[in-house]
Records
---
Amino acid sequence: MSLLEIILIAVSLSMDAFAVSITLGLSVKKPKITEIVIPGLFFGFFQALMPAIGYFASIHFTDGIQKFDHWIAFALLGLIGGKMIKESLSKKEEKPDENAFQLLKISVLAVATSVDALAAGITFAFFKVNIFNTVMITGLVTFFISMTGVKIGNTVGEKLKSKSEFAGGMVLLMLGIKIVIEHLLFAA
């Protein structure tokens, strides 16, 4: 997997955190620096942790399934991407939460938005990526995107939330298709 592909996956996976960060930004008149940095830290940490867990959990059985690993990667990326697209098209209204920045709530949100990254970590094992670099990139990308999301949510609001989630889902779907096509056309 190339560096560009890893960055694209990191950006795509961070779109859930971005969408939630926008919502967090909506909940305050003017966010303090801690209300911008803390979501970035929590979302970034869990976005980095989950793929590492998925990677190390799956590395033990990759040898037995290498003949169809591309289909597993396609299915996982497709499910994650499809879920993100479906959620982006949902008309569900979210009300601002005046207690949105409590550490327990931020922790729960960080875990919830990083579950998709756990599945992505499983696919990383199939492609023998440098997991340390991959999780660092994923965590840093999510950190910055989440901080940006709080600030954007505070200034422009709800309009960007569904668009970012849709774009992230499309990127994951396209990467899944690319993996299958490369394997079917170029595998030796």
Note: The chain has a mean pLDDT of 82.
---
Amino acid sequence: MATKYKRVLLKLSGESLMGSKSYGIDPDMLQHYSHQVKALVERGVEVAIVIGGGNIFRGLQAADSGIERVTGDYMGMMATVINAMALQSAMEGNGIYTRLISAIEMKEIAEPYIRRKAIRHLEKGRVVIFSAGTGSPYFTTDSAAALRANEINADVILKGTRVDGIYTSDPEKDPAAKKFDDISFAQVISLGLSVMDMTAFTLCQENNLPIIVFDINDHGNLIRIIDGEKVGTLVQG
């Protein structure tokens, strides 16, 4: 059966790796993501991943601890590398071929980012894990996801969250919140909805790269999405 999307970029938050813990990495969550990604690979989908570092360190909050913004952002990038290494280890333990790529040179543990090489890895069926954000301060991992997705010519960004799409307000706080099945980039901006940070969102809008926001904790959602089922909220146009 042909899939709707051939090449996808999966964006995961660092917090999603915590599972039921208050910080750090839950081994059960590593296995959860590993099995979902393996199902995509077995269907012939080319998968790239960008993961955040908020479960270990959040750069934006560093100022509260007396750490300057730029230093804090670099510390956050290091946190994403730790998460990416953990994810790589779990995936390879489940028989998935991977390549870990870092936007900051760490030749002992990760390849440097070279666009053509990353694309070649995808073409060979390897899961590419992008770490260290964009390699520059002041940019979030959302921005890294948007940048890399455009650079590798991904068909879609799949943003895994704790909720099953985009709502008029936070569904965890407002029981009257209504879900969007489809929404345009312009509508997201006019309604002031939070999907990605504005730098990332604008990059997707300018390049007409669709975003699907969905519940990553529902085990079958990734397969449903690449099969073309309506899951979560699709942002496009």
Note: The chain has one domain: 7-235.
---
Amino acid sequence: MSDLITIGEASRRSGVAASALRYYEDRGLIRSVREGSGHRRYPRAVLRRISFIVFAQRIGLNLSEIGEELAKLPTDSVPTGRDWSRLSEPWRERIDDRIAELERLRKGLGECIGCGCLSLNQCALANPEDRAGRQGPGPRYWIGS
């Protein structure tokens, strides 16, 4: 079994489109080697990096932030569980913030947004004299102060 896999196999095994893999490579998030034919071949360990990228995107990191995080990992060996754990620990607060925001959104689904922009009938009760409007534009009670 070769230690290198094709872009098609990397795509199939990771569930990420080949075009995205090429884009990740262009951004320096993953690396390939080129054989005589010029075709990309990836070390099998790239599948872990791709999984990390997908996970990090799901929790809200952008590709620049992901690149900064991946730069902290060893490039000459397969990252260990300890490496991944150390890297992801600071994200807990970010995840907790997103959970709290989603809970606020869920609570507000059946109520007036409280900012004066959606339900004039209800907002007269929930937001008298447009108090939320003085805090700035948009759904102030949802996005925080």
Note: The longest helix spans residues 91-108.
